[in-house]
Amino acid sequence: MKLTVNIAGIELKNPVMTASGTFGSGKDFLPYVDINKIGCVVVKGVANKEWLGNPPPRIVETYGGMINAVGLQNPGVDVFCREDIPFLRQFDTKIAVNLAGRTIDEYVEVAERLASEDVDLLELNISCPNVKEGGVAFGVNAAMAQKVTEAVKKVAKQPLIVKLSPNVTDISEIARAAEAGGADALSLINTLIGAKIDIHKRKFILSTKQGGLSGPAIKPVAVRMVYQVANAVDLPIIGMGGIMTGEDAIEFMMAGANAIAVGTANLLNPTATMDILDEMSIFMRNEGIENINDIVGIVE
Question: Catalytic positions, please?
């Protein structure tokens, strides 16, 4: 059985990746996960300098998932390069770095800093709010999405994945804009916007009122958007959004994803990546599928 997949020229031993923000750099998962078995570790968002994130409360459970407003808390790119890259290089897995920024210059600065570092892929998080444009996320405007992709692509030495926001009218339009800007691959979906109210206190639970909804509740939306984007662009796609089982992962690949990323499931079950990989292999064996790539985009 062949499980290897290719994302923008980078070969992964299998299509299972971690979704940024749910796995850190893997240190906390060592008792539960053999990182050598993961196709690629996508680390938590990395900015040009330390981000403290939002004040608590910033995570709340909801039906079929959770809402988070962590705010991309991270220690900055210098600490990441000093501590996390050497840790991950102990393992036989690929490393993708999620780039965070509030302006185009901040994104570019991180990509430039990583140009000489031993990482395999960059993932551009265009769901960050652009402070120079009044806080509107880069990923909800096609022209802005293309502009930031072009700027980062100019300095990036690694293949560039652009992570798409679902909080748009037409995600295919944003996907085509990222492709026009030079993206080497796309990942989707990021979180949907949601909110939860404490009816006894008569106030929003999260300090920011709203946050990013993730988990099984968003999976049908994610599958639909992966299918749409796969039919709109000619780029490799990493599908994510509520993947809890191997069958969920297979569904994304049949919709058009070349690889998949496991996010919220890691927080519920620390062995989720291993379980999903095993379940995908069992499905392939039971269905007589020799090459995982044969099912990519198989639905019409």
Answer: 128
